[in-house]
């Protein structure tokens, strides 16, 4: 038989120790601040995302209300 070439595999396991679980609480504590900061710094990009979505939502709700009123006769 021929020689079999093998590869040594290393297993890496990442865990979070009980002493370092403050990471998520810090994330949630700063979430509002970071979100507000990102919106104020990039308000043009935020508007280009939010305005079409909000406009479509408002148009759809208005259309549904008109349909309801139209069939009310």
């Amino acid at each position: 038989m021929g020689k079999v070439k093998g590869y040594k595999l290393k297993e890496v396991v990442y865990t979070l120790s009980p002493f370092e679980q403050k990471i998520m609480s810090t994330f949630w504590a700063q979430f509002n601040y970071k979100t507000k900061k990102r919106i104020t710094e990039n308000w043009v990009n935020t508007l280009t995302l939010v305005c079409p979505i909000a406009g479509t939502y408002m148009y759809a709700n208005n259309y549904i209300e008109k349909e309801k009123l139209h069939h009310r006769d």
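The CA atoms of residues 37 and 72 lie 47 Å apart. The chain has a mean pLDDT of 83.
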